[in-house]
Amino acid sequence: MGNHKVEYPQKQNDTTVYEFTNEELAEIQKHVAKYPDKQSAVMPALWIAQEKWGWLPQGAIQLVADTLTLSFAHVYGVATFYTMYLKEFKAKYLLEICTCFTCGECGGDKLMNYTRKKYNLNHDDVSPDGLFWIREAECLGACDTAPVAQVHNRPLVHNLDESAVDSIIEGFKEGKLPAYTAVPLIDQSLIS
Ligand code: FES
Question: What CATH number does the domain located at 93-173 have?
Answer without folding.
Answer: 3.40.30.10
